[in-house]
Design a protein that fits this description.
The complex is a heterodimer of chains A (133) and B (291). Chain A has 5 helices and 3 strands; from the N terminus they run αβααββαα. Chain A is mostly helical. In chain A, helix 1 crosses helix 4 (83-107). The longest helix of chain B has 15 residues, at 163-177. The chains are: A mainly alpha (133), B alpha/beta (291).
Chain lengths: 133, 291
């Protein structure tokens, strides 16, 4: 099976972290349900063109945080999450996406006040059902 | 660390070429890509590991055994493809070759051989001598796989091979590595092969190991940075490999380190771009390298 994960070489975030974050995202959003099997470390490395050292690190982190579990000889599976952990992770993910967008805007020279205006506008537009930029 | 290959102080000279002295450790469960220009010693190294060439000096341990003392036992557990191994038997058909090679291995799996022959669209009745370059490569690959070795030693396994078969070979090699108990040492020139398969890259230059690193380490080390400004003291910094103007940009092999220092000095990194493998090789292998 293939996971909808995309890693970017040009990101400032290390590849193992990108993998970790995206798997977390798939789990908390419910796209990967508890009990679902994950690809093997080697298969994921092949798909993402990274080394097994990198994917192993991502899996080990996810395992130590209780997201996944490796059963010797059977494979790696998604663990059931407690609902408060789930909320916490969701917030973490949204935070990191917003932070990235803010950094990008700052780089283009926007002030924080301007950013808030843009953010308010985006929220208004979405609520009015108008998703054009 | 559980080692599949351990080479110590290996030296091999012939004609005008000298390989080594070199040391190399290959961990079990890993794929090591040997990279380097033509004539850098990749094939010689692989052939010396296989004892197809006898070293002048040094030792080669494969799967925990000295290849000199336990040649037969060790070779049972290795699959080798390369070096025109079968040219001496080229009057045989593909099936004839398989029969010959099958006798060398107690683990030979005739069913798996048939499966691979079909998978790679090889005509079993064809004389090896009449096969195209690409088909010969595929036959060598199939014969290396069909006895379920623990270690594969491959010399440019997909050179001249059609694209679909290349992709299948990479899939089969990934599958081979699946349980973490197998190991591959392969010489290659193909970026795609390195990306999809390799965990470590070993860089050979003029018979010596110039560098060996985990593949994804490249991401932490090499980058092109576009900067808001470049103070003079960075211009002589050995970590800065190239400087270009408008817009100001540098190439570095110590990205993480430099990133922190630039931040401390209030210099903005406007954009980061990782280098492609061949660009990195060019920097590392350039004669006036400043490392």
């Amino acid at each position: 099976m293939k996971l909808p994960i995309v890693v970017s070489d040009d990101s400032k975030e290390p590849i193992y972290y990108q993998i970790e974050l995206q798997i977390k995202r798939l789990i908390v959003s419910g796209q990967l349900q508890a009990g679902a099997a994950l690809p093997s470390i080697r298969a994921l490395s092949h798909d993402l063109s990274c080394s097994v050292i990198t994917t192993r690190r991502a899996y080990q982190d996810l395992e130590s945080k209780g997201f996944i579990e490796t059963v010797q000889g059977k494979g790696t599976f998604v663990q059931a999450l407690e609902s408060n952990t789930q909320d916490q992770i969701k917030e973490e993910i949204v935070y990191s996406i917003l932070k990235k967008a803010i950094e990008e805007s700052k780089w283009m020279g926007y002030s924080l006040t301007q950013l808030k205006e843009i953010c308010d506008k985006a929220i208004d537009d979405l609520e009015r059902g108008d998703d054009r930029p | 660390m559980n080692l599949a290959v351990e080479i110590q102080s290996l030296v091999k000279t012939y004609n005008n070429f000298k390989l080594g002295p070199l040391d190399l450790k290959v961990e079990k469960g890993m794929v090591i890509g040997l990279l380097g220009s033509n004539g850098s010693g990749k094939s010689t190294l692989l052939q010396t590991i296989m004892k197809l060439r006898n070293p002048d000096n040094g030792s080669v341990q494969v799967l925990g055994m000295d290849i000199n003392e336990y040649e037969v036992e060790v070779k049972e557990r290795i699959g080798f493809a390369g070096a025109g191994l079968y040219e001496a038997f080229k009057q045989l058909t593909v099936d004839g070759l398989a029969e010959l090679v099958g006798h060398w291995y107690t683990n030979w799996d005739q069913d798996y051989y048939h499966l691979l022959i079909n998978r790679y669209n090889i005509n079993r009745k064809e004389k090896f001598a009449h096969c195209s370059m690409g088909t010969k490569k595929k036959v060598e690959f199939v014969l290396a796989m069909a006895h379920h070795p623990e270690l594969l030693i491959l010399d440019e396994p997909t050179a001249n091979v059609d694209l679909i078969s290349q992709q299948r070979m990479r899939e089969d090699l990934s599958q081979f590595m699946e349980d973490g108990q197998h190991t591959i040492v392969m010489a290659t020139h193909l970026q795609e092969e390195v990306k999809q398969l390799c965990d470590y890259i070993c860089l050979l230059d003029d018979g010596e190991i110039k560098d060996m690193f985990e593949k994804d380490e490249i991401q932490n080390r090499w980058a092109r940075l576009w900067l808001s400004d470049l103070p003079d003291h960075f211009k002589d910094d050995i970590r800065v490999w190239q400087i270009e103007e408008s817009p100001t940009q540098i190439v570095t092999n110590k990205f993480s380190e430099l990133e922190k220092e630039l931040q401390q000095q209030q210099i903005e990194i406007n954009q980061v771009k990782r280098l492609e493998l061949h660009e990195i090789l060019e920097y590392i292998l350039q004669p006036s390298s400043n490392s």
